[in-house]
Amino acid sequence: MTKFDLLAINFSWLSILPLMAISAAAIAVLLVGVRVDDEESEGLGWLSLAGIAVTFVLTLLMRGQHDLTFSGALALDDYTVYFALAILVTAAIVILLSLDYVPETGMVGAEYYSLILFATLGMLLMAAAGDLIIIFLGLETMSLAIYVLAGFARRDPKSGEAAMKYFILGAFSTGFLLYGIALLYGATGSIKLDAISRALSSPMSSPLLLMGIGMLLIGFGFKVAAVPFHMWTPDAYEGAPTSITAFMAVGVKIAAFAAFLRVFTGHLGGVRAEWNWVLWTLAALTMTAGNLIALVQTNIKRLLAYSAIAHAGYILVGMAAGNAASGAAVMYYLLAYALTNLGAFGVVIALGRKGVPHDLIEDYRGLSTRHPMLAAAMALFLFSLVGVPPLAGFVGKFYIFSAALNAGLVWLVVIAAINTVIAAYYYISVIVAMYMLEGAPAEDFTLNRRPALVAAIAIALIGTVLVGAFPQPYMSAAQTAFSSVLSSPPPTQVSSR
Amino acid sequence: MSSLILTSVVFLPLLGSLFVIISGGDSKSIWRSAFIFSLVPLGVSIYLVAVFDPAQSAYQFVEQYQWIPQFGISYHLGVDGISLFLVLLTTLLISISLWYSAGGDIEERAREFCFFVLLLETGLIGALLSLDLFLFYLFWELMLFPMYFLIGIWGHGNKIYAAIKFVLFTMFGSALMLVAIVYLAIAARDHFGSLTFDLPALIQVPLTVTESRWLFAAFALGFAIKVPMWPVHTWLPDAHTEAPTAGSVILAGIMLKMGTYGFLRFAIPLFPDVAVEVTPIFMALAVIGILYGAMVALVQADLKRLVAYSSVSHLGFVILGMFALNTQGVEGSIYQMLNHGLSTPALFLIVGMLYLRRHTHEISEFGGLWSRVPIMAALFMFAMLSSIGLPGLNGFIGEFLIMLGAFLHTWQAVAFAAFGTVLGALYLLYAYERVMWGELSNDKNKLMPDLDLREILSIVPLMALMLFMGFYPKPLLSRMEPSVNALLTRIHNPVARVESRSARRLATASPLPAKDRADQRGLCDCIFWAGQGVSKAEVCAGEEVAPITVNEAKDPAALPLSPFASGAAGGGVRS
Question: Which of B11, B120, B160, B225 to mutate to test the interface with A (most CBs of A within 10 A)?
């Protein structure tokens, strides 16, 4: 049988063109980087952007297909495309944010950009995974690159600490994930998501299955920073270079949720009753703990870290609902979350200087008089995080709440709603500093007026407003995309066992 | 009748705010353009009142376009007799606020100030005209944050504390309201087959008693905080005291009305059975608010805080009248919203003028100002008498109608509330006496200048309207009446609702939480309350004859509720 299987592998090179393009770009940046001065790494950034743009176009061409290739290892559907596009936009904005930040903080450009591209490759793999091994592969590709990036500011001990913590806990969690995959294989006889969901279509409840699902939950829980697996997040986010913090907070989270959502809502739906309540609890814990701890933060990066935890909690509310509408809601929410957070981190980068990060909330005092546009942008991002209509963050919450109410999770939604009020306090405290308190306590700093940075913030800002005020196209895209996960592709395409 | 008149009155201020923020120019030209931009919607709303058809009870000038069809969310605006004058009041007070603030009250960051005030106007008017709950929520939140900036940036004293308290209180209420709105839309999906946030459609949605009680509670909490009703009023004195004058004017004049308006437009029509059911609670809370607000106002040493607490008292009257749920009461409460929207802003303007001269609100700092500033004293007197409810001025009509309506419903409530009017006279007259009469007691006041023309002109329009509304309420009341009566007919006529409710139970496999038997009991109570004609014993006896369990599908006709429901129709409208 094995022989036949090898021969019967059906694959199309076309389907992995985006993955190949981004890998090629990563290698190209690395090679070209050998001949480029560290000081002049901006060109490498543009090269990476070009690579991302090519990948973006190639991904767009994949729309509307519904197929499994490489014997079911890669899923080529709208779901993949949706998340791939979101990840690529994230990577592109992160690179725009880095163009000035990298030379300014004295980081080595070539490795930096190629690692970002490799991490992006891993994220794309996670989004496209048709079986559990590919998820693992993508997760590792992404994580290894990000571990290095987190410690990229070599001379900053905090950065080293961030990398170390992230690495150790990350490796630990990957172990859980892998173990979960093994147990799930034992329970269902396959690592292919498709086959797993077919095996689970008749009710089954074996200890093996339950343990496997539990381990998977822990593994994903670490990556999406759900409480109680969130301990690494604040330190890693605070210590890492800010552009990488943005990448971790947004890119990693999107990719992890892409896989999480596909596996759980998409393919473990048959045994939903077994894991639903766990997600319910995780969601309630995550948003409440994240928001409560965020209340006392004085560092904006830590504040955004805890806010990211809380937002993972809101997304978990959608996951707990576990129906088609909630899947689409989670997808839309991730898009809104990505744009808003990238913008907020962009503003944090804009205020920083080498050696003087200016990342305390105190440093934002009086920003509205010194840099009104920057303050207004930050205020809008924060309002989107609070969930003020008609910004993207609000529509995302609205979408998730309605999906969860639809599934009957009234109390969870009430907890979430109360959480949004708690959250409003700390977001608003930043706005208070910017608009209502006088001048910064330390020396006044000048704004980094680099066009790439401004462009990144502007893109995020326009996105935050547009995706919120006119959500229809994105909602439809998310819905079509998610329905492609729920309906399995034609059986002929799946290799027989 | 489809035109863009409502859209223009909502979005012209937004246009103005964007113009102000991007246009150059010195502060003088900013004030001028902002004021002119505020006059345009004022003109439009005057035109709106003029062309409003007083005989119609339905929404007029309705505009509806799809916005997010996936969720059944539409851009749906409409005006009726309940919202008409509140729109006019809003546009008027915004213009007055800008006119007054330009005269030296706001000196720093005028550009942002005008931006936020105009943005706020869009939020306020949008909330008044929205007939789609999603759209309403959008505007409801939109008016929160500009006000937060107004208090936090241009306020006095402990302004940041006040601003944050204001935001958190209001957000707490609105967050739960959002959950209720979405829940309601999903119930509508089970009823109609598709999600909708459209108010006229949602009114038709049948709900179980437990559902509608919880949903009403969520809406009511959101609105009660905004009103604010006792005991959730504690944000108000802080917000008012620390806000700049224009902020207080808008806050007291319009924003508080959003709470009472929300009750009338959403909470009561959506959950009429519950509204009838909770009437005693709300009347009690209203009476407590009236007396509590008045008594606390009596002991205030700070003039602005005194006026703030008087709002708690006055809005207690509004709630009292509203929950009488009869024509007099509801009309009186709408009228009183308008009265309060004229007299309290006038009082806040006077207090602001005093503050501008002396930088204090302490009553003890003043005394005997009459001789120094006779014009101010006269205007203060006028506004105060209107607030007290002197016959011949607007306040009297509103309070009278409210008392009448409440008396017809529960005379005991009026017996207590009447003390509120006495106390109202007491605290205002007492404050007036200490500020204006007697010998000039504080040397610092010796050189106090009297009002200038700008200041006089900012109060005169309010005074004119007070007089007009005091002498000739008919044009206002006659425009309110059809809408109010339509609302009341719906509340007191439960037949249609009960029948369709039974239908829904059978027709849908609801994903909503399982209802228990207690619901049935509650339903009986409800019909009892609303119908009046049928005794509770009879209704509940019916339940024993043919008990229903929720999950059992039965022929609608076999439900024990329908016969009693039609019997209850005889109860009719209270008059």
Answer: B160
